[in-house]
Amino acid sequence: MAATTEYKTPIEKATPIESRHDDHLESVLKPDDLTADAVAKGQAATGYETISLWDTVKTFKVASACCFAAAFSAGADGFQMAMNASIIANKGFVQQFATDVADGKKFLAAGTISSWSATQNCGQVVGQTGISFLNARFGRKVGMYALWTLIMCSVLIETFARNWKIWLVAKLFAGMGVGAMQATILGYISEVAPVRIRGSMLMLYSFWWTVGSFFTHVALQRLNHRDPFDWLTPIYIQWGHVGLMAIIYICLPESPAWCASVGKEAQAKKWLKFIHRDVEGYDVEYQYQVRRCISKVRAHRLQFFCRQNPAGRICHVTTI
Fold first, then answer.
1. Among 31-45, 124-138, 204-218, which stretch is predicted with the lowest mean pLDDT?
2. Cβ–Cβ under 8 Å, residues 80 and 155
3. Separation in Å, CA 47 to CA 4, 64, 66, 107, 219
4. How far apart are CA 27 and CA 210, in angstroms?
5. Dihedral, 306, 312, 315, 318 alpha carbons, nearest 10
6. For the chain, domain boundaries
7. Claim: this prediction has a pTM higher than 0.90
8. Which of 72-86, 115-129, 286-300 has the lowest mean pLDDT?
């Protein structure tokens, strides 16, 4: 069921929100800022905010599929992270990476396990922080390729690691990969998903991550019954996930919202047409203007902290 244009409110007609001191507010905000401020307050809508959730999915089939595929890729990373955390119980893994011996038995020292965990957490922080600059400068697709490279490198190192120090490097790359994925994929979904189903699509990320983690434990449990000393098979399985992620990231379109935020009008309209080619009556020009103004709000968000003097006027405005 396609949405009609009756929900649309032209951006040019958006009315700035009133203030107790209009002349001061107008002196701070320029005309373009007033438009963006109106968009931020919901006075310029995409026109599809009032249709039901299921109707939104049926109307925006391609956009929904793109978000689903992006979220599905999180399952592969969920498998890897759960495998890294659980494989330390594998007898073969312990024999290979043992750092201490007691009573003739090899085991992993607590300090070694802690260093792996801490390194992975540090890598996650680095990945989340660093990828944000890459995403803002070069786009979401480049960010996807970067996070895929990090994950691929971690799996490659895991494949050839034979001592705890090399495994430490693998944990660092794995942490950076998951951090980069969280910052990139969640942002991509929030920009591509229709407003009505945006929350549901973002929840799919956690869903597939959990599913990937669940199958890790299933695989390790089955492997433990068959051959408790086989620790390489779970690592080799990850190459299939890496290949699947590559296919998904190659096929996904660029985020039109990012294109609009950096002034790439032609590319933004191109991807808007591609993602919404199945939506009857979709006004690309209007939707581009909405995204352009929304991106302006995100980049130059104005927040007013009001203090009143005895005369009851705004005497302090802070821009962040």
1. 31-45
2. yes
3. 8, 17, 21, 62, 46
4. 51
5. 10
6. 1-60+279-320, 74-258
7. no
8. 286-300
